[in-house]
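Reply to dn_fold:

You asked what the input looked like. This is it:
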Amino acid sequence: MMRKAEMSPFLFLLALGLMFWPRVAWAIQTHGDPEGLYAHQLGHFVFLIAMVYVCWQIWRQGFQAKPGFTRLFWACLLFGAWNILTFIGHIAEERLDPGAIDRQAGYFWRTLHITDLNGLLYYLAKLDHLILVPAFVVLYLALRAFRRQQLGVPGP
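and this is what came back:
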């Protein structure tokens, strides 16, 4: 059996080999019409309900004064806002005019012609990472505060 010191170079070489010998990635999830989109939207809705429930429980129990719970509360609010944005974005994408996205510029470059409110909503929904990344940062800070509290380490 390999020890950790012997396994690290093996794992590094394996990862390096997989990185430079790629196959089809299948990184984009498409939704079959219309069942896949319904299931995906239902997932967003259930996650939103869960985030609202966690926020409500933190507020109801009076935990919002504690540093970890304050951060968890804000992380859940951000995750809820992200769910609302992406839910609306999926609807806007389905209603988007087929000619609104110009793919003539190439594979990596596309032009969106915003001609109506739906196109604007679609564009804004594509900026969902501006909400999602801070949500994960705040969640990390909450988990770090919980761990420090558990270990008895002072600090926020």
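The chain has one domain: 35-151.
Hope that clears it up.
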